[in-house]
Amino acid sequence: MTSMRIRTPEAHTTPAPATRAWTMRLLVLGIVLTALNLRPAITSLGALLEEVRDGLGMSGSVAGLLTSVPPLCFAVFGVMAPRLARRFGPGAVVCAGMAAITAGLLLRPYVGSTAGFLAASALALMGIAVSNVLMPVIVKRWFPDRVGSMTGLYSMALALGTSAAAAVTVPMTEALGGSWQTGLAVWAGLAAAAVLPWLPFVRERGARPAEQPAARQEHAREEPALRITRSRTAWALAVFFGLQATAAYITMGWMAQIFRDAGVPASTAGLLLAVTMVMGVPLAFVIPRVATRLPHQGPIVLVIGVCGLAGYAGLYFAPAGGAWVWAVLLGVSNCAFPLALTMVGMRARTGAGVAQLSAFAQSTGYLLSIPGPLLVGVLYQHSGGWGLPIALMTGLMIPQMLVGVLAGRDRTVEDEAAR
User: Fold this and answer.
1) Given its phi and psi angles, is residue 263 left (phi above 0), alpha (psi -120 to 50 degrees) or beta?
2) What pLDDT, in 10s, does the model give residues 326-365?
3) Among 100, 88, 160, CA closest to 125
4) I want to staple 131 with a disulfide (CB 3.0 to 4.6 A). Which of 97, 125, 148, 393 is the partner?
5) Helices (H), 222-350
């Protein structure tokens, strides 16, 4: 991605400070609006899952499949993001991703069948997938000296969008007449707004705005493919990403239903899910900044994991009695996501390395996370309760903590892959 200046024969000069400042402000706005749209497609559905199941005639197993669609799409489409970014530029790919989210969210409530609902959801999730992968790349390239703060900013915006969709979808649906179709489709408006800041970047390619020709040539020499699978840290980060994604999508897809089955009203269950998501708003800004100041991120991984274990224990023994406490603890546990994104930026030295590590960790991780939400739906339907699904969630938290400690070690994938 380059700056937004008009290319002339003398375009090798550094852009004027005012132009560059305007470009950077627009880029920050684009990052924030993009992050706001990376989860409402999922959490708005979680809040209305029972109504969608009734409206489309879904069984519990099919609903479990529906909650597994996000990680499947992230795995399949996320791996394409670096190649698309090299060909069209990261800005163009993210812009197209926001347009895909808009179209998918508009279409899926009105297609009238489970298959059509899944297909339209996949379109929206494809846009989310490529944007997921490219956010760390854009931050590393344009804000190399502010990786922690910028990662915190878009992680905080992502958490805000996640929690807002969980909190307001049910009351907004009621205010708009009670139709779950309208309650889901309204989120397309936020996605449409996120298209606009990226339009000026659609034709842009290459390096950062301040780079001179020599720097561009050096940047190009960084591009040869890294043998990422040789890196133990890359594998540890991919497994960590997969396990935290498993926990996150089980939470987003099923936690509201756990509370509703325990006797909590639907609106309150939505608020509890929102509390879990909103915990990520302040913590997603703080954790990356703290993580970049530590040589080893293992201690943060362990604290997050212990909170998750405590939250699952509460859901098992007293889901309604301590509901607000469990929601807070699981909200802290879900902050493994911004920590994983921060480690992606820290475990590679170059922009090309971050792009490959981000694609590998996220695509492999989301692929690993696919069975989790589906298995929860199957266990719930066949056992008639939440005991076995919660036991599964608890068991997966232990290896998440172990591989997270390994991924947090102070080393780079370039060094490991070269050995």
Assistant:
1) left
2) 999 999 998 998 899 889 888 988 777 888 898 899 889 9
3) 100
4) 97
5) 232-261, 266-278, 280-291, 298-317, 323-333, 336-346
Place of tokens 């132009």: 19
CA distances (Å), origin 128, targets 125, 191, 226, 406: 5, 10, 25, 28
Residue 281: what residue type? V
The radius of gyration of the chain from alpha carbons, rounded to an integer in Å, stands at 21
Given a contact cutoff of 8 angstroms between Cβ atoms, the answer to whether 169 and 52 are in contact is no
Tens digits of per-residue pLDDT, 237-270?
A: 999 999 998 998 788 778 888 998 999 888 788 7
**Per-residue pLDDT reduced to its tens digit, 150-165:** 888 888 888 788 778 8
Long-range contact pairs involving 114-118 (C-beta distance under 8 Å, separation at least 24): 114/56, 114/57, 114/58, 114/62, 117/52, 117/56, 117/66, 118/65, 118/66, 118/69
Q: Mean pLDDT across the stretch 194-199?
A: 92
Per the CB < 8 A criterion, the answer to whether 291 and 336 are in contact is no
Q: Considering only the top CATH level, what class is 20-209+226-418? A: mainly alpha
Hey, where are the domains in the chain? 20-209+226-418
Burial label, 175 (beta-carbon count in 10 A; 0-12, 13-18, 19+): exposed
Is residue 38 within 8 A of residue 284, CB to CB? The reply is: no
